[in-house]
Specification:
This protein has 143 residues and is mainly alpha-helical. The protein has five helices and five strands, in the order E-E-H-H-E-E-H-H-E-H. Helices cover 57% and strands 10% of the residues. The longest helix is centred in the C-terminal third of the chain and has 40 residues, at 99-138.
C-alpha cells in the first residue's frame, strides 16, 4: 500500500501566523484555486465538514489538509465516490492506494489521454477544412 503525499508546503494565504487560524470559505477557495460552489458541493457530499460559526464556514488546518487530499485525488482522476471511499479507510486524510489501484488509474488516464488526443486531431482537421474553405472563397491559393 502506497501513501500519496499531498502538498503540505503550501503557504497560508495570510502568512505563517495564520497557518493554524481557521479560514473562511472565500480564503480557502482563493488559496486552493477552487470555487465557493466546489467547496459547498464537497460539503454537501460529506467530503468536507467545516466548522460553522453562524452562517460562516470556517476551515481548520485539518479541513484544509483534507481538501488538499481531495484535490490531489481529483487530479489523479478518481471520482468523488472513489475519493470518499478512499478517505473512509484512513484517519490521517492521506490517500492509501494499492498497487492495483495505481495500475487501474494509470490505464484509465492513458485511455482518457488517447481520447483527448483523438479529439484534438479531429478538431484540427475541422479547423483546417474551415481555413481551406475560407481561402477558396476569397480566391487565394491553398498550400
Amino acid at each position: 500500500m502506497a501513501r500519496v503525499a499531498h502538498d503540505t508546503q503550501r503557504q497560508s494565504p495570510l502568512g505563517d501566523f495564520a497557518a493554524d487560524r481557521p479560514l473562511t470559505i472565500g480564503e480557502v477557495a482563493q488559496h486552493y484555486g477552487v470555487t465557493l460552489r466546489t467547496l459547498r458541493f464537497y460539503e454537501a457530499k460529506r467530503l468536507l465538514t467545516p466548522h460553522r460559526h453562524g452562517a460562516t464556514r470556517l476551515y481548520r488546518s485539518s479541513d484544509r489538509k483534507r481538501l488538499n487530499t481531495i484535490l490531489t485525488a481529483r487530479r489523479l482522476g478518481f471520482t468523488l465516490a472513489e475519493i470518499k471511499h478512499l478517505l473512509s479507510k484512513t484517519n490521517d486524510d492521506v490517500l492509501q492506494l494499492t498497487r492495483e489501484q495505481c495500475v487501474k488509474q494509470i490505464k484509465l488516464l492513458e485511455q482518457q489521454k488517447r481520447s483527448i488526443e483523438t479529439a484534438i486531431s479531429e478538431l484540427r482537421e475541422i479547423h483546417t477544412a474551415f481555413y481551406r474553405r475560407l481561402l477558396e472563397e476569397t480566391g487565394e491559393p491553398t498550400h
